[in-house]
Amino acid sequence: MTDKQSLRREARERRRGFVAALDPLAHRLAFKVLPTPLATLIGGRGTIALYHAVDDEAPAQRLAHALAAQGKTLALPCVLDRLGSMEFRRWHPDDPLLSGPFGTSHPAAENGLVVPDVIIAPLLAFDSAMGRLGQGGGYYDRSFARHDTALRIGLAWSVQQMAQVPVDPWDLPLHAVLTETSLIEGPIEGPPA
Fold first, then answer.
1. How far apart are CA 17 and CA 2, in angstroms?
2. Would you say 62 is a known binding-site residue?
3. Where does ATP bind (predicted)?
4. Domain coverage including residue 35
5. pLDDT digit string (tens) for 16-35?
6. Does the annotation list 4 as a binding residue?
7. 137 appears as a binding residue in the annotation
């Protein structure tokens, strides 16, 4: 099996090429609407953690207005250090964002901390078993473990699905992945609503 670093390079190149070739209108419309299967999956969970996309990541922030219209409390992650620590701060789509490490953007500290019921996470690659290959810093792995009752949903471009991604014993599988074309649910059931 290919090592994680090589697979990350391949996944970044694949994603970059896909996004560069995507019709600009299709790109602007991607992830603007909350698909019914995702709304059903989220159900009555009230606090949804999104992320502010970096580079050619699937843009999770585009789901914000639709989720807010459903009365959901939104949050964005804030990276705390280089050791993989991250917290979630309350956020509204009209709130200004501060610059963070690694090109990230996050809400101000005075927005307050929240505990997410759903964590929508970026990724480089995923597979049908809902294995997730991230950037390698462990931020989401630690957050998934810390918020173990949260529904774990990956957001990706369809080209990011691979036959198999390597997983370590501490990697928690996703419950589902939303792409620009479909919602793919995993073999594990989500935590209770």
1. 21
2. no
3. 4-8, 132-140
4. 4-185
5. 999 999 999 888 889 988 99
6. yes
7. yes
